[in-house]
């Protein structure tokens, strides 16, 4: 996994955290369905899918003993 992959994954996590934080605000008018759709759109981005595939194939973090 490259630094670019790591950056993409961290950015996506931050985006999803922001969406969840917005939804938890009682003044936020968006429904749960729309909030979930926004999160799914992030998860389905091709660049993020490719970065996750790199990670799952062992190109990224490894356990060091």
Question: Which structural category fits the helices and strands?
Answer: mainly alpha
Low-confidence segments, given as residue ranges, are none
> What's the story with the biggest beta sheet?
none
DSSP summary, beta strand count = 0
- Domain count: the total is 1
- Helical content (DSSP H or I, runs of 4+): 55-70%
| Shape summary | elongated
What distance separates the N and C termini? 20 Å
Radius of gyration: 15 Å
- Overall mean pLDDT stands at 86
Total helical elements: 3
**Topology order in helix (H) and strand (E) letters:** HHH
Q: Roughly what fraction of the amino acids lie in strands?
A: under 5%
Fill in the keyword field for this structure.
3 helices
Task: Report on the architecture of this protein.
The chain is mostly helical and 65 residues long. It has one domain. It is 69% helix and 0% strand. The protein has three helices and no strands. The chain has helices spanning 3-24, 32-43, 46-56. Helix 1 packs antiparallel against helix 2 (32-43) and helix 1 (3-24) packs across helix 3. The longest helix is centred in the first third of the chain and has 22 residues, at 3-24. The radius of gyration is 15 Å and the shape is elongated. The mean pLDDT is 86.
């Amino acid at each position: 996994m490259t630094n670019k992959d790591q950056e993409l994954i961290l950015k996506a996590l931050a985006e999803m955290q922001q969406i969840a934080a917005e939804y938890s605000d009682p003044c936020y008018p968006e429904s749960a369905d729309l909030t979930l759709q926004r999160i799914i759109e992030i998860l389905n981005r091709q660049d993020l899918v490719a970065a996750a595939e790199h990670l799952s194939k062992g190109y990224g973090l490894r356990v060091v003993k």
